[in-house]
Design brief:
631 residues, nine-stranded mixed sheet
């Protein structure tokens, strides 16, 4: 079995004209059934994949900064993996970083740096339109890997554009405002504007002159040209070498990759992460396929599924329907099925036995074979209500600082309910005011159609588990525990892709804001924090998932004066710098966080500069601070 060659692909496109996206091969297996795993799982993992109906394995390979771009040690590893794939008759593609630490170190020597819409230069983030970076991180590496291929393996390479070694994870939609990008825009579009305009003022100038959309389109056009040039150079030597990337965020960067990397005869693979926990939906899959067709991208669109977020039967159904409506599916990660359960930690831990997942996936792939043989096949697993899946809580990074009440008089009873919704895994610090039998109310809230319920642990100072349990999606539970007066404990919850809320009776209740407090689709009208005596200046930082997700935040003094504010979408951390008057120091301040006038109010991250204790509460009488804090 091989990845698609140009001749076999033409015939295959006729068979799949209803999708107008090519499948990965021309044999009986039809659509892409792909597993992401690691080199540590060994070449023998390909045989396991083949036994369960998979036809492609992709493996992340972190590379050292080197010239040539792929060192001999990594090339030898690729050859070993390719041998395992060849023996199992499974295709293989390595996944390489665009901006991991080695790539960032290479860029830092002489490359261009990304500048955001506010004019801030990111020293550890490459400009997306830097030809040198594309030559090194993509073209030269693809050629080096293709040189090693035997019997068509590896048959291609995927790029992972998530920037693990950079200052930001992904590029915002506004594009790069570096000097080179700005000058190229002015020259190519014949726009009359100050060439040396301060980068901090360029976005404002574009808005005022109605050129913002033109700038984004130009960024996309330049990137498309760079990617196309790299692809043409690769295919000039290796015309059957498949290219692709792991991403879905509808920005100029994404569209430039999608348009530049594929051709009608040799479509690129887009392995999206946006469907990890949601799975198949019309909006998440069919609409994306239509969008890619509309923008003229020649791609194989492959939705991704995160194994640990799924019940095996639901995974089977969604894998089948993702493949039915697109070009296949891919899994993150069968590494979770390759190791004993006791060795799986954090995001790799799975809620059910590995054998149940293997069985479900084998059945899904068998059904896809039937669909491939008969496009009118009406069978296949049906989509239905999702089972609640519980992601295990990881307690390794939970801290137990010495905390004390910020005020003399503590809370009584339960609040009406915690308004703030905590995303994924989060901790809540609880300090019992009177001790005795204490009620704690927990709620798990659904986002979209995610199926993860809430797993929770109540830990004592020695990390001893005082109580534990689960809460199903869209349910609320009330638990009771006996706490000594003044006892400190931590409620650690993990709702996976969903959110949860916590409310404790007669307890001080505080959220840690380090490294970030991640809230989503629900925030208390006011969040209270402490400004110590002697603090002349401090900062509040905001970050959202992208520019379309927005927030409005005001920083208010104890006298309710607005000391600083910000509104918008902030894919990179946005700083609100505050000057504290002497009369306002040593007191409780508050954040007023709410929906902005435009955009979607969803994921919001908050943190403070080091001058401020990293704790926040929804009411001032529940705030906890380091025990040594000044009044």
């Amino acid at each position: 079995m091989r990845l698609v060659t140009p001749l076999s692909l033409v015939a295959l496109c006729v068979c799949l004209s209803s999708m107008s996206q090519a499948a990965p091969d021309s044999d009986e297996t039809g659509t892409i059934r792909c597993a992401y795993f690691y080199g540590s799982d060994g070449p023998g993992h390909f045989a396991t994949l083949a036994d369960h109906g998979f036809n492609l394995g992709i493996i992340k390979l972190a590379l050292d900064p080197a010239d040539p771009p792929v060192d001999r040690k990594r090339l030898d590893a690729i050859r070993a993996l390719a041998g395992g794939a060849r023996n199992a008759d499974v295709d293989f593609m390595p996944v390489l970083n665009w901006a991991g630490t080695p790539e960032v170190e290479f860029m830092a020597k002489a490359g261009r740096r990304f500048v955001n819409a506010e004019g801030r230069e990111f020293s550890r983030t490459p400009c997306p339109n830097d030809p040198r970076q594309w030559k090194y991180a993509f073209e030269a590496r693809a050629l080096a890997i293709a040189d090693e291929a035997e019997d068509g393996r590896p048959g291609g390479m995927l790029l992972d554009p998530e920037m693990y070694g950079a200052n930001i994870g992904m590029y915002p939609g506004s594009g790069c405002m570096c000097d080179a990008c700005w000058r190229q825009f002015l020259a190519d579009t014949r726009t009359v504007a100050p060439v040396e305009l301060d980068p901090a003022k360029r976005q404002e100038w574009l808005r005022e002159h109605g050129r913002q959309k033109l700038y984004e389109a130009h960024q996309e056009q330049v990137l498309t040209s760079l990617v196309r040039g790299a692809r043409e150079a690769i295919h000039a030597e290796y015309p059957g070498f498949t290219l692709g990337f792991l991403l879905y965020a509808d920005t100029a960067f994404f569209r430039g990759l999608a348009r530049g990397m594929g051709t009608p005869e040799m479509p690129a693979i887009i392995a999206t992460e946006s469907t990890y926990a949601a799975g198949y939906s019309t909006g998440g899959v069919d609409d994306m396929v239509t969008h890619l067709q509309r923008i003229g991208a020649h791609v194989q669109f492959v939705p991704g599924l995160w194994i640990s977020r799924w019940h095996p039967e639901d995974l089977k159904a969604h894998a089948y329907h993702c493949a039915k409506h697109a070009s296949g599916y891919w899994l993150f990660t069968t590494h979770s099925l390759a190791l004993p359960p006791e060795r799986l930690k954090g995001d790799y831990a799975i809620p059910y036995p590995a054998v149940d997942y293997w069985r479900a996936l084998k059945e899904a792939n068998a059904e896809l074979n039937k669909l491939h043989a008969d496009p009118d096949y009406a069978g296949g697993p049906a989509l239905g209500p999702r089972h609640s899946v519980y992601v295990p809580v990881a307690v390794g990074n939970v801290r137990f600082p010495a905390l004390a009440p910020a005020g003399a008089e503590g809370p009584k009873g339960l609040k009406r309910f915690a308004a703030s919704r905590l995303r994924g895994q989060a901790a809540v610090y609880l300090l019992s005011r009177v001790g005795g039998l204490t009620r704690i109310r927990l709620s798990c809230n659904r986002l979209g159609n995610y199926g993860t319920g809430l797993s929770w642990l109540l830990l004592g100072p020695d990390k001893k588990t005082l109580a534990e349990g689960t809460v199903a999606v869209e349910e609320t539970r009330e638990i009771t525990v006996t706490l000594p007066p003044g006892s400190m404990c931590v409620l650690v919850g993990n709702a996976g892709s969903n959110t949860f809320q916590v409310d404790a009776e007669n307890c001080y209740e505080t959220y840690p804001v380090r490294p970030w407090l991640h809230l989503c689709s629900g925030v208390a009208p006011n969040l209270y924090f402490h400004v110590p005596e002697g603090t002349e200046e401090f900062s509040v930082f905001l970050q959202t998932d992208n520019e379309a997700e927005t927030v409005q935040c005001e920083v208010l003094t104890p006298l309710d004066e607005v000391a600083g504010a910000a509104a918008g979408g902030f894919p990179s951390p946005h700083e609100i710098r505050i000057t504290a008057k002497p009369v306002d120091r040593g007191k409780t301040w508050r954040l007023r966080v709410r929906r902005a006038s435009t955009g979607v109010f969803e994921d919001i991250n908050i943190r403070f500069s080091d001058e401020i204790p990293p704790f926040i509460s929804e009411t001032p009488d529940r705030l906890l601070l380091p025990a040594s804090h000044d009044g």
